[in-house]
Write a structure and sequence with these properties.
heterodimer, A: 106 residues, alpha+beta, Ubiquitin-like (UB roll), five-stranded mixed sheet, 5 strands, 12% helix, 20% strand, B: 435 residues, alpha/beta, FAD/NAD(P)-binding domain, 3 domains, metal-binding (chain A), iron-sulfur (chain A), 2Fe-2S (chain A), 2Fe-2S_ferredoxin-like_sf (chain A)
Chain lengths: 106, 435
């Protein structure tokens, strides 16, 4: 099963196994990973599942749609070049994910 | 905290067979889940029982009228937390129990009696019991094929009936009605929406937004009738199944399925039985405490002081939203920890209907001016609401930048001057001003 490696704002790492097809956000929420709020449950409406993706894995990800791009301008911690909304990042078999969570989401 | 009570992390069976818990949360809802999660984050160390009357683990409702209905998400992905999470956090989930009566002492402890005969003893009580779908009161409303959409069983029942349906009527042009109508239309049904009022989503948005949705939905293939007066639901020949909706004047709109979405009624019965003050919901103070001073009532069921900063003293409101369920529960968690935090925040809402993503920031209560921003080319539309020159809310369709700008400005106590905002090319974030 693919593993998501979450690093929080203090640098603590937590590894969570997820199911292929689930999003990084769902994997976090279901297991109570702090740092991802996800009020809207993944419908791209709230921008509270903001993560920073490890730079060298960015090119493995699907391209951002306009809606996600615009929502990222409203995150609680300002976006960076490696910002994504974790509800849009699906896990794939044989592909681990490395993300950092911002200090706050709201 | 009350130090005279012996607390235990494990629920103990008492001599009379009742389960004893530190906190009993009645209602395994969005707010019930958040309350348990927030309490654990704050270090609440007593046992928690999260009790619901449905036979499902606590799940998210918003997708029921959209992705779940359309079959694009599995039921498993609606589950809030894994079983492991609840085990690790010492929260007992109780499914399929309906509480009928509660005996409570002055110190906040008591015992809840379920319809099954089971009893749950508690030291503190939380009511996160939500609301139920308002029932249609016309002849034929009990025919087979007439459905509601409030919980997972409703959605499952609706899905199970869709096979033979060609024509569906949705009664009610609010959020649920229009979301479900859009879903059914996408699934190939002929859909007619019957709205009693003169405009769509009349309770939540202003006239300009209603007009926008009317045009947009008609353009996407929904048959929408405003000011519709329903006389009866008409049965099929010799059967107990619905065949159409009869309107005043004799028109019958054919329907093998009728979905009713005409609002909700707060579940105040337990509050009333406990002798709590009830008025369109269980009345709570700024700390989510009910009139007995010990019970917390949270989310859809609570009638609370308007949390929007700057709202007039004494103004009360009951909010039906995910955002409120979450933020209100956080305040209630503080109260149960003996800390008093005021509930204050910017309410926000969303509704996805076909390709229309509506996001609402703030509350329009008392607005006296609107500014419409329309970008036809990019399919974006926003209405900004002002009260005495100060922005108080915005409805934004496919316009997340506007939504975020208004939500953030409200949170920071800023204004977005109306004159400058009227130009749709202006980026709202750049014109927000302090004070």
């Amino acid at each position: 099963m693919p593993t998501v490696h979450f690093t929080d704002a203090e640098g603590a790492v937590r590894d969570v196994e997820g199911n292929p097809g689930d999003s990084v956000m769902e994997t976090a929420v279901r297991n109570g990973v702090p740092g991802i709020v996800a009020e809207c449950g993944g419908s791209l409406s709230c921008a509270t599942c903001h993560v920073f993706v490890r730079e060298d894995t960015l090119d493995q990800l699907p391209e951002m749609e306009e809606m996600e791009d615009e929502m990222l301008y409203g995150t609680a911690v300002d976006r960076e070049d490696n910002s994504r909304l974790s509800c849009q990042l699906k896990l794939c078999e044989g592909q681990d994910m490395y993300v950092s969570t911002p200090e706050t989401q709201v | 905290m009350d130090t005279t009570t012996t607390t235990t992390a494990v629920p103990a069976e008492t001599a009379d067979g009742a389960v004893r818990t530190g906190l009993l949360i009645i209602g395994a809802s969005q707010s019930g889940v958040q309350l348990a999660v927030s309490l654990r984050a704050l270090g609440f160390d007593e046992h928690i029982t999260l009790l619901g009357e449905e036979d499902h683990r606590p799940y998210q409702r918003p997708a029921l009228s959209k992705e779940f209905l359309q079959g694009t998400v599995e039921s498993e992905s609606l589950i809030f937390r894994s079983n492991q999470y609840w085990e690790d956090h010492n929260v007992a989930l109780v499914k399929g129990e309906r509480i009928e009566r509660i005996d409570k002492e002055a110190d906040g402890s008591g015992v809840a009696h379920a319809a099954s005969g089971a009893e749950f003893r508690f030291r503190r009580l939380a009511l996160t019991v939500g609301a139920r779908a308002r029932r249609l009161q016309v002849p034929g409303a009990d025919l087979a094929g007439v459905v509601y959409l409030r919980n997972a069983d409703d959605a499952l029942a609706l899905k199970a009936q869709l096979g033979g349906v060609q024509d569906a009527v949705v009664i009610g042009g609010g959020f649920i009605g229009l979301e479900a109508a859009s879903s059914l239309h996408k699934m190939g049904k002929n859909v007619t929406v019957l709205e009693y009022g003169p405009r769509l989503i009349g309770r939540a948005v202003g006239e300009e937004t209603s007009e926008y949705f009317l045009t947009a939905h008609r353009g996407r293939g929904l048959d929408i009738r405003l000011n519709a007066r329903i006389q009866e639901l008409v049965p099929a020949d010799g059967g107990g199944r619905v065949a159409g909706v009869g309107l005043e004047g004799g028109t019958v709109v054919p329907a093998q399925l009728v979905l009713v979405g005409i609002g909700v009624v707060p579940n105040t019965e337990l509050g009333e039985q406990l002798g709590l003050e009830v008025d369109n919901g269980i009345v709570v103070d700024r700390h989510a405490l009910a009139s007995d001073g010990t019970t917390v009532a949270v989310g859809d069921v609570a009638n609370m002081p308007n949390p929007l900063p700057g709202s007039p003293e004494g103004e009360r409101i009951r909010l039906e939203s995910v955002n409120n369920a979450i933020e209100h529960a956080k305040v209630a968690a503080y109260s149960l920890m003996g800390r008093r935090e005021d509930y204050a925040g910017i309410p926000w809402f969303w509704s996805n209907q076909a390709d229309l993503k509506l996001q609402i920031a703030g509350l329009t209560l008392g607005y006296d001016q609107t500014v419409v921003r329309r970008d036809e080319e990019r399919g974006k539309f926003s209405v900004l609401y002002y009260r005495g020159g100060q922005i108080i809310a915005a409805d934004c369709v496919n316009a997340p930048l506007d939504f975020m700008a208004v939500k953030n400005a409200l949170a920071k106590g800023q204004n977005i001057p109306a004159e400058a905002a009227a130009d749709p090319a202006v980026v709202l974030k750049t014109i927000a001003t302090d004070g």
